[in-house]
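Protein record

Derive tokens from sequence
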Amino acid sequence: MGLLWLFYPETLLVLLPALILAIYAQYKVRRTFNKYKQVNTRRGLSASQVAEDILARAGVQGVTIAGTSRAMGDHYDPRNKALRLSAPGSASVAAVGVAAHEAGHAIQHARGYAPLALRSAVVPVASFGSQLAFPLFFVGVLFQSEMLLNVGIILFAAAVLFTVITLPVEFNASRRAVAALRDSGSVTEEELGGVKQVLTAAALTYVAAAAMAAMQLLVMLLMARRR
């Protein structure tokens, strides 16, 4: 929305709180991850071993566990039933916590967790919307086209919906991770506290993303109203 701020610089005030939250969230997650990736668990199980154990205990089969070269690019791909870990061989509290979280997503998928299914269904529309929303809206501002303004708002609303749906999906995966680690004894109670800090910091980035997206949508609505 950078070019739109040239027309309405006061909208920066609307976005500022969300921007500050986003900056803090990135700082918090990096600081927490850097702290706990230096602390190994006493049992010494690697992240991939922990994920495999959690899935086995949950009766989830057919999930591939592999590495990814992307830093902090850990994710679960429901299309291919693939769990990708950035540090599969690490036994650090951070790596184990993230692996457990991603295993939580795999369990969600296997159990047919409704918010995850809804998020997966929204992905194509949200991706399409996030790419075209701002260009269409900007052209609508330039040429005073109400139709383009409305289309841009609707498309971006789909992207906002995706960020909102993501919140319960991520929170639930973290709860599953903490419960699974406690039940399996893969970490001590003290280490579990570190895992919670790592997952809470990661969750904050999703909250910040949702807040930023919601505020951007609000700005678009305000701009359209002021035409």
Remarks:
- Helices lie at 2-7, 11-36, 47-57, 93-111, 114-143, 146-184, 189-225.
